[in-house]
């Protein structure tokens, strides 16, 4: 069901729109952590380390799919808010065609270059073969990941967060079941968890894309709809490329950090692999809610409702801070028990590594969540240069400090300390950029019924 996010009380609209998004986050992360969970519990610590080691490289591919999702979503949101339905349909087709070409290029690079990259990041010999096998299968499934991300971006742009939630719920639960089946019943090892993801994501992708086309057919237009438009393509690139660069540079930074971690041995790698999955659950939750803020902001900017952007921003901060509190408590005080989900017979080093990581990062979830909500508004307003500055500041600080602090007496613990520093500095920058946006002096329209008082953010 399509939903106009430019009408109704902003806080209420955002809660209704973002709650299914949060549910989608849970199931998306079940998708992501299932491979590590099954590998650690049913195969062994080296298998967990291999999947975790490969995961940092898969994030590069995910970065490109995410960028295409954001590029398509922002454009479609703005055109839907402005009720330019013909251009909106063309933007969908343009994004699908462009993403297909990009996906084909990445598949070629992945099939030819992943093995070399695993060696560059100093992957230990005992997990090298499994890491290579996992990545090879993963790359063949890239078309499913790309088109699924485009489809979910379109649903969100149309104000529909329920449909992708339903797809993810069924698909992620199926993925866990097939993971366990392939590993325990068929004895397929690391290859089993990779093939399970391939199959389940493939089914989700096909169903999501078919649903998108059926949804678009119901939006009537009186004009001929071009399948590709160079003007829309340039706008798509303008929004998608910074998001791709942001995510891919973060992934490259994580790979550099992974290479530093790999120097501390398989037990530290396993502990980090388990803890980073838990951390990524949080960061992806905040990022997805930030994407919801992007869709909300873009629709309202398209409708020239700038004051509603300010109201939505405040509601978004309240939402993520309410989420940050229980996550901080769970990770800081009960992290050990959550880590046991990934490990059957963990070493003391692995558990201690994971606990240190979670206890250092979790208090700063209140900070990074504010940055990601702010980034959502900046993306929705196409303030991509400012968005990039804040993001790259975070990345550069984390990579440089991780490499430097790992050489001190802190050793691996020094690596984890780099995260909060990068997050804090980047958050300050993002908020400063937001406060100088086009909505800075916006006031409610005379006919608004929200009852909102005029106030700044």
What would your notes on this structure say?
The chain is mainly alpha-helical. 81% of the residues lie in helices and 0% in strands. The chain has 14 helices and no strands. The protein has helices at residues 10-43, 45-81, 85-120, 125-140, 142-157, 162-185, 190-217, 230-262, 266-302, 306-339, 348-361, 365-380, 384-405, 412-435.
List keywords for this structure.
457 residues, mainly alpha, 14 helices, globular, disordered C terminus
Evaluate the radius of gyration: 22 Å
Protein structure class: mainly alpha
Helix content: over 70%
Inertia-based shape:
globular
Task: Outline the secondary-structure elements.
Blueprint: H1 10-43, H2 45-81, H3 85-120, H4 125-140, H5 142-157, H6 162-185, H7 190-217, H8 230-262, H9 266-302, H10 306-339, H11 348-361, H12 365-380, H13 384-405, H14 412-435
Helix pairs in contact: 1-2, 1-6, 1-7, 1-9, 1-10, 2-3, 2-4, 2-5, 2-8, 2-9, 3-4, 3-5, 3-8, 4-7, 5-7, 6-7, 8-13, 9-10, 9-11, 9-12, 10-11, 10-12, 11-14, 12-14, 13-14
Quick rundown:
Helix content is 81%, strand content 0%. With 457 residues, it is mainly alpha-helical. The radius of gyration is 22 Å and the shape is globular.
